[in-house]
Design brief:
The protein is mainly α. It has 2 domains: about 90 residues, no CATH class; about 280 residues, no CATH class. The chain is built from 19 helices and 5 strands. The strands form 2 sheets. It has a 3-stranded mixed beta sheet with strand order 2-4-3, covered by helices on one side. Strand 3 and strand 4 form a beta hairpin. The protein is globular, with a radius of gyration of 21 Å.
């Protein structure tokens, strides 16, 4: 089969799955007539989507002239789409098997001894006296960005990170990001890539935005994270190399795991392993509370506490615990107030996103191990087609 037909089948399969699963097509800027045709037709039956994915995997294996790296990337992507189609068709797939088939990693349960050690480390650095959870919640919630100046803070950070990203890697001419504030979403931030080097980044105001996460949020969604990856790949892979499979971004595929991992790594790439002094320079003139000294100490254990979300999802979807039990687990081990634990579980129970939490946990781990602080390796993540097994083997 000619490569152009194979890529067309891949795009149609992704768009057809998006007719059934809300949010499954994260971004699409490919041929508009193809999208219009898929939208104009009745949704394809899930059993037929399973067959289409199976045939596409066979066609990939028998296309002789495709570059091995491109074939490997597309095969991993279609394997994820095949899994989503099988679920739609009613096949029962175990939670851990689903994650491994979709994202290319098999998650593990973080031992509670590791979480307890993280609690002990936090106890040594947090100010005040009394129960650790109370002190941690009070400290975090004391770092709220006043809503009236949130937009100014976002713009200030984005300008700084954009300049640093451009100096490190270069940015395509004409790229731009627009920020907006939204509510009633299961996530804290979202990049809507529009094609043409443009992104719209939404920041969710359901819960107060904290200064201790704002720097990572801007870096994650814009520079050098999602927006940077999308526009660098549009410029390099799509426009120069005509690899149109990159014009669609699909949930339930390894593409997402690497994207979330590199985006979470982005702040340390542009601002160093200790970004707190730089963040403080931006926050102080705006009157935003930011405890840089404690933030630096807390960040060293935050990755461990972040893995609690994965444990809670495994308890809920793999080990038969109730939603209340999983939420209480988050409160206890992530030291999270009830409202934030409930918001995290809203994400973990959303039909589109329930397996996605491991894109952050295992995606960051893999990208950290691959990059090892080397900006040149990070640039490969935002410009090339890589799969999780390649990162693990490097």
């Amino acid at each position: 089969m000619p490569e152009s037909e194979l890529i067309g089948d891949y795009l149609r399969l992704g768009l057809a799955l998006g007719r059934h699963i809300d949010g499954f097509v994260d971004a699409y800027y490919g041929p508009p007539e193809l999208e219009s045709r898929v939208a104009a037709q009745p949704p394809v039956a899930p059993v037929e989507l399973v067959e289409r994915a199976r045939h596409l995997l066979a066609d990939l294996a028998s296309t002789p002239d495709m570059a091995p790296e491109r074939r490997q990337w597309l095969t991993a992507q279609v394997r994820g789409l095949h899994t989503s189609a099988r679920k739609l068709a009613g096949e029962r797939i175990g939670y851990l098997d689903e994650i491994e088939s979709c994202y290319g990693v098999r998650p593990t349960f973080v031992p509670e001894d590791d979480l307890a050690e993280a609690h002990r480390r936090l106890d040594r650095v947090l100010p005040g006296h009394g129960a650790l959870a109370d002190r941690y919640i009070a400290w975090r919630e004391g770092q709220v960005v006043p809503p009236g100046i949130l937009g100014r803070a976002v713009d200030s950070l984005a300008e700084e990170f954009r300049a640093r990203t451009g100096a490190l890697f270069g940015l395509p001419e004409g790229e731009r990001v627009e920020f907006e504030m939204v509510d009633d979403k299961p996530w804290s931030g979202f990049n809507y890539y529009l094609g043409g080097m443009r992104s719209r980044v939404a920041i969710n105001l359901d819960l107060p935005v904290l200064s201790i996460v704002l720097g990572n949020l801007v870096a994650h969604e814009a520079y050098p994270g999602h927006h940077t990856e999308h526009c660098r790949k549009e410029a390099g892979l799509v426009r120069r190399r005509h690899q149109d499979e990159e014009t669609i971004f699909l949930v339930g595929t390894p593409q997402c795991l690497i994207a979330e991992g590199l985006a979470d790594l982005g702040l340390s790439i542009v601002a160093g392993e200790r970004p707190e002094p730089l963040l403080e320079e931006h926050f102080r003139p705006l009157g935003i509370p930011y405890d840089a000294g404690v933030a630096a100490e807390v960040s060293s254990v935050s990755e461990v506490l972040g893995s609690v979300r994965g444990n809670a999802a495994i308890l809920l979807h793999d080990r038969g615990r109730s939603l209340d039990e999983a939420t209480a687990y988050l409160e206890r081990w992530a030291l999270s107030p009830r409202a934030r634990a409930a918001k995290a579980m809203q994400f973990a129970t959303d039909p589109t996103w329930r397996a996605y939490v491991f894109c952050y946990i295992d995606g960051l781990r893999l990208c950290q191990e691959y990059v090892k602080g080397d900006p040149a390796r990070f640039e490969r993540l935002v410009t090339e087609q890589l799969v999780p097994s390649q990162l693990a083997a490097a």
